[in-house]
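Aim 2 progress update. The chain analyzed this quarter is reproduced below.
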Amino acid sequence: LATGPRQDNGVFYEIRTYDIKPVKMKEFLEMINKYLHFRTAHSELVGFWYSELGAMNKVFHIWKYDNFAHRAAVRHALANDKEWQGKLTSAILPLVEKQHNEVAYLVPWCQLGKPPKEGGVYEWVTFQMKPGGPALWGEAFRASVNAHINTGYTTLIGVFHTEYGLLNTVHVLWWNESPDHRAAGRHRAHEDARVVAAVRNSVRFLESQQNALLIPLQCSPLK
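Predicted structure tokens:
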């Protein structure tokens, strides 16, 4: 099955999710904030967050690559970077219970955005869609996302469609000023006939949905 059109270049994003040992989260975040610059010297970090609601003891980070050869070169350089290996990797691995990664592309109708200001919160929403790819559900999903944007209560940062990992998965990253601002906006959206109609059309292709409220780390470019 065709995955449908994507951005017309080789740029992709590696989405990494780590489960941290509950008693080690504070130590993990301190180490990341202190030493992540050794990692970002090799490739571009989009954002780094920890979960506040919807998932416990998880961190999410997104890395941008020009193509797969670029990623391979970065991974090779990291394997030979003694400062990265010695000061961060060796220190954080005992704090991590599980690691998961995915490769995803931005959908063709979305450019990676930025929040209007620092200091807000992020919402990471994962949609597991029916098999068939964007050729089947793409337009309905886009209409649903746009309906939420048009209410004006939330800011879209990015829509990512998986290429490696669990297929037919779409991750949507939103920004809001605060959890209460997000809650008030959701109430308005649920009463907006345009949103209700778009969502009803999109959920015909939906198998499951998860979301998490994320807080950006000090070292995260997206704050």
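The two ends are 37 Å apart (CA to CA). Residues 79 and 85 are 7 Å apart (CA to CA). These observations will guide the mutagenesis experiments scheduled for the next reporting period.
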